[in-house]
């Protein structure tokens, strides 16, 4: 298990956030226009907090971070209990159906919905869900064997089965050393979203967030680039 990050420097995190924000603004200006000619939403920086202890979270708020994402359901519930008022919270980890009940009271978005069992649990626990909860459907745009995600050809039927409003799509492209190798997959996800009138696109991490923004990302999930 990776070691938790400690002793965050607020000024450094703030400077990193400002730098990344500027880079994203420039990259987003290169994104293709929407089919209806409307402007794409600005790119939101989501701070991934899987490797941050709860005690470090107030430093993120002090540095100007407003949206955080946790990968693990139990840690999400615990961190929200301590610092829930500081941020908007998203769930960004692999979604286990049995954990849905722990997640839905706390988050605005679940980034990783990709199974019918998850849809059933979302419906089952709708009574305790946070008002306005939305989901992002994870799409396996590259067709990788054994990888989570709905196949593009099955996306429409999956959307139709969702008991929760679908805010947009998410993808994790194949692992690649060069961010440019992810461009085709980000572009494919954008096309799928545009064809269905979906607004949110969660794609891009510390390794490839600029390419993602150039291809229309509205949320990028950043960890190490914020904290180093």
Explain how this protein is built.
With 228 residues, this protein is α/β, with parallel strands linked by helices. The chain is 35% helix and 15% strand. The protein has nine helices and eight strands. The protein has helices at residues 10-28, 57-63, 73-83, 100-103, 116-124, 155-161, 183-195, 209-214, 224-227, and strands spanning 44-48, 67-70, 88-91, 109-113, 134-138, 166-170, 200-202, 219-222. It has an eight-stranded parallel beta sheet with strand order 7-6-5-4-3-2-1-8. Helix 1 crosses helix 2. It is globular.
Question: Nutshell version of this structure?
Answer:
This protein has 228 residues and is an alpha/beta fold. Helix content is 35%, strand content 15%. The protein has one domain: Alanine racemase (TIM Barrel), CATH 3.20.20.
């Amino acid at each position: 298990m990776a070691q938790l990050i400690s002793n965050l420097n607020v000024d450094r995190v703030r400077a990193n956030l400002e730098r990344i924000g500027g880079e994203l603004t420039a990259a987003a200006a290169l994104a293709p226009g929407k089919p209806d000619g409307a402007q794409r939403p600005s790119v939101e920086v989501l701070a991934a907090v899987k490797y941050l202890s709860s005690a470090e979270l107030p430093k993120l708020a002090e540095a100007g971070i407003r949206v955080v994402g946790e990968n693990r359901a139990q840690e999400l519930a615990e961190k929200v209990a301590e610092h829930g008022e500081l941020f908007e919270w998203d769930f960004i980890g692999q979604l286990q159906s049995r954990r849905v009940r722990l997640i839905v009271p706390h988050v605005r978005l679940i980034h990783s919905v990709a199974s019918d069992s998850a849809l059933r649990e979302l419906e089952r626990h709708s009574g305790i869900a946070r008002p306005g909860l939305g989901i992002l459907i994870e799409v396996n745009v590259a067709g990788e064997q054994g990888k989570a995600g709905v196949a593009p050809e099955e996306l429409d039927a999956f959307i139709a089965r969702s008991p929760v409003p679908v805010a947009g799509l998410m993808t994790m492209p194949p692992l690649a050393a060069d961010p440019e190798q992810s461009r085709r997959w980000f572009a494919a996800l954008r096309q799928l979203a545009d064809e269905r009138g979906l607004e949110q696109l969660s794609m891009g991490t510390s390794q490839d967030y600029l390419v993602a923004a150039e291809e229309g990302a509205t949320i990028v999930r950043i960890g190490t680039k914020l904290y180093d």
